[in-house]
Each structure stands twice: as C-alpha cells, then as structure tokens.
Design brief:
Sigma-70 family RNA polymerase sigma factor; Arc Repressor Mutant, subunit A; mainly alpha; sigma factor
C-alpha cells in the first residue's frame, strides 16, 4: 500500500478510535483489555485493508474485526454465564406501557421523571447482565450509534437478526430497570414477573 492508503487509513482510524475504544471497554468490561482489543483490531484492519472492497463500508468492517477478535480471543478466555434462552416466546415487557399507567400520568412527563431518578450504573449493570449476543448488539447500536446495516456487518449476521436481538435486548433492559425502580420504591406499579430462562442460547 502506498502513502495515500496509509494517510487515508490513519485518518479513518483516528476518527473511529473513541467509538472503538468505547465498544471495546464495554465488551471486555475492563479498560486495559479494551485498549489491547482495540490495538489488535487496528493492526488486523491495517493488514486486511487490501481486502476491503468498498471504503464506504470501513466503519462496519472495522467493528466486525473488533467483535470477531473479542469473540475469538477475549470471550473464549472468560466465563460469562451467557447460556440462556432467547426463544421468541420470552415475556415481552414495555417500559412505555408501564410508565403510562393512569396513576403515573398525573405527574407530568413520566418517562423523564423515571429516567432522571435512575442511576447510570443501574443501566450499565443491566447491560452487563445480558447474554453476549444481546449485549454486543446494544453496545454497537445504542451505545456506539452504529446503523443496523453496520452492526449486521460487524456481527456478520442479517439485518433482521440484528433487529430481533436488539428488540429482545431492549425488552430485557426495560424490564430490569423497571424491577430496580420498583424495588427502590420509585414506581408504584406492579413489578414484572421474574421469569427464569431455560434452554440453550440460539443466538437469534
């Protein structure tokens, strides 16, 4: 590769580094490991740059390298307890529906009041408790703001799978936050049922 390629790569990677680092730290749950993951992913991206067909797809392609590196090297060395059911009949839970119970609507904007009273750490912990296949898609889309197509490229799955996983992840997060708020006495509505998950993780 010539100096033009080197300059282009340097510019693109420099612009992406904050997002790559943010995603890596969330995936690894550790800053040092996150830094190592980014360094390795950037090195692999540079080595593989000649194989990139469309430079407009660079962002999703680099995130794919990052997630693949995490899966193959970092996640395999840990035990996250991620084997759990992702069946389509998981109980759906809508935070919006819970917040719009008549008793809550007397108090102005229920969503804003609710979210203002939740600690950021509770959301981080709720994300960390998700199985990896759901946690990763939340990190890519809701935290790092990748598009559905970019996330699909990064995860090497169809866009429909990304949408399905994100919907399930958001439902679980909403349910977890509602449970935390109920336990803390922030809400007056009924707590959602705590349903035990069964079966293998099918990843879809």
């Amino acid at each position: 590769m010539d100096r033009t390629d080197q300059a282009w790569f340097a510019d693109q990677i420099t612009a992406l580094l904050p997002d790559l680092y943010g995603a890596a730290v969330r995936l690894c749950r550790d800053r040092t490991e996150g830094e190592d993951l980014v360094a390795e992913a950037v090195a692999k991206a540079w080595e593989g740059l000649p194989s990139l067909r469309t430079r407009n797809a660079f962002r999703g392609w680099v995130f794919r390298i990052l997630t693949n590196t995490y899966i193959s090297q970092y996640r395999s060395s840990r035990t996250h307890g991620d084997i759990e059911s992702l069946d389509a009949d998981d109980d759906a839970f809508s935070l919006f529906e819970q917040l719009h119970q008549p008793i809550l609507l007397w108090w102005g904007n229920p969503e804003q009041d609710f979210l203002n009273r939740l600690l950021r750490d509770e959301l981080v912990q709720a994300i960390d408790r998700l199985p990896d296949c759901l946690r990763t898609v939340v990190i890519l889309i809701d935290v790092q703001a990748l598009s559905y197509r970019e996330a699909a490229t990064a995860l090497d799955v169809p866009v429909g799978t990304v949408r399905s996983r994100l919907a399930r992840a958001r439902s679980r997060l909403q349910k977890a936050l509602w449970e935390n708020a109920h336990d803390a006495g922030i809400t007056t509505g009924p707590a959602p049922s705590r349903r035990e998950e069964e079966g293998p993780d099918d990843g879809d």
